[in-house]
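Support reply, case 0932

Customer input (verbatim):
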Amino acid sequence: MKITDIACHVLLDPAYDIGATSSAQDDIVVEIHTDEGLTGIGESDVNPWIARACIQAPGTHSMGLGLTEMLIGADPLAVEELWESMYVGTAMNGRRGALIHAMGAIDMALHDLRGKALGKPCYELLGGAQRESITPYASLQPDVSSFEEYRRSLVAWARKAKQLGFRAAKAEITPCGPYAHKGLKATHRQMTETIGDVRDAVGPGFTLMVDVQYAFPDADTCLAAIRDWVDFDLFFIETPLPADDLAGYARVAVEQPIPIAAGEWLATRFEFFDLIERGKVRFVQPDIGRVGGLTEARRVSEFAARSGVQMVPHLWKTGISIAAAVHLAATAPHCPLIEFLPADLCESALRKELVLDEIRMEKGQIALPVRPGLGVELNRPALEQFKAAAENATRSLALI
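Our regenerated output:
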């Protein structure tokens, strides 16, 4: 079998809002085609126009090759070997960042393709299942523009998540910092009060996490802001500091009792080595597309296990990434939860409609997939709708 083509689909929710700070509004989806008629699909959480350029751009020398030109004619079943070839062959194009994120979509598609070719779910080819089901948590970020409305909506969504059968949820509380949703502004005291409201809404037996999305500029500010959060029995606090402040992460991790989680932005296992060893976090959150695909996410998972650190994959895209996270989690006994952006608690049509046969939760659990590969397929009419929206935005905003 040989790879004959790599199709890149830049997608956009027609109702996108730049101020929403939500990457569930756009997507890069790749399809890898073969001479035997099999196709694998993958996606990544990165600016899709940039990712498309990373995938399609040609190269002029052996260490600055284009991803597509390296793969045409290759054996798609040699997934791990292809990862190494892409990483080395594009080293001068960038060993981190957008290039690795784009590689992540390709690698995800290669795993899907290999599973289909061999008639096995991806997790069986990643080391085998270590559990019978996966526990998802609802990731909650209301799409509103005032803090009080955000607070009310977040509480309502938390209650609904529990009613839907979720046993865990993460409250995205970001009224300050770079992710300030739609320009929301609030004090640290208001953040604390909001967490208290959410905890009251879901009750004491419900697993609750908080994502502040890099809200605090330094460890001192963070430690002062979260000192009253201990009473809320939080499973973890996610990304409290800028991603590069590993010394700050180490301080926050050891100077207060709430576990700290981070890693959604990181590319390759090498950045996770530093996060674990220098940042002292207790949870790592590889985003499967961003980190470099299932191949690299599996390496992060293995290193975390050896280091005594738990893994909770980050994802904020469509049912493609949900499926990939389920397959990764199935292989990892140190993965207590996966992130899940439920369609019932999401505004994005792209998130809701892109795939068919989406993996679903029942009674608070996700059963392991039985179909070959990732186990999901694209909804072709929806794909075309989202492609058209991206093309219209490209023309109207002169993005390219």
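We compared this against your earlier run and they match. Two observations from our side: The first strand starts at residue 3 and ends at 12. The chain has a mean pLDDT of 94. Please reopen the case if you see a mismatch on your end.
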